[in-house]
Amino acid sequence: MWEIVVSGGWLMVPIIACSVAALGIIVERLWALQRRRVIPKHLVAQVWHWERNNQLDKERLRALRNGSALGKVLAAGISNRDKEREVMREAIEETGRHEVHALERYLNTLGTIAAISPLLGLLGTVFGMIEVFTNLAAHDTGNVGNLAGGISQALITTAAGLVVAIPSLMFYRYFRGRIDELVVYMEQEAIKLVDVMHGKRGKESLSEDQPE
Fold this sequence. Notes:
- The protein is an all-alpha fold and about 210 residues long.
- It has one domain.
- The protein has helices at about 1-5, 10-30, 35-40, 45-50, 60-65, 70-80, 85-105, 105-140, 145-155, 155-195.
- Helix 2 (about 10-30) packs antiparallel against helix 8 (about 105-140) and helix 7 runs antiparallel to helix 10 (about 155-195).
- The protein is rod-shaped and about 90 Å long.
- The relative contact order is 0.17.
């Protein structure tokens, strides 16, 4: 394995660095974007239960805000529960935009890695091919074995770049879709709570999410 890396030349260094960064981002986002961490089960019903029983004090509100992305969005609306419905919605939407940005953390970097890794590999191959033909011209030889060996070494960087880029792109697309799904659900849950608090929706709409 080490011989293959060395054969790829100095451009294998940034490709390996990209692979390490991509792996770190993928593992971190898989952990951070778990549904139970972003949208805890029965959270809206639990909040309504506290509100209905006058138990939603500052301590619980602080815990709600620090507990999850959905909790932060709900806390923003609840902090304005004595104001008009539109004020609550605006507070929720503003906080929601910040949470979307947090959910998308590192994704631009992952997308960049997916885009530049094959280009780095191609660049390494081009440099390798230039070196092969330069050596052939300098030694004035037509040894097919040397030519094939040099080309195979030059193609190592292309293969390495693709090995990094393909899973990076797959996970980038997966995380994008995952975030879109979570954001839509958060919006639905937050607006549901606002509507219930302002009498625009029946309390039975929360029945399926009653706390255990």
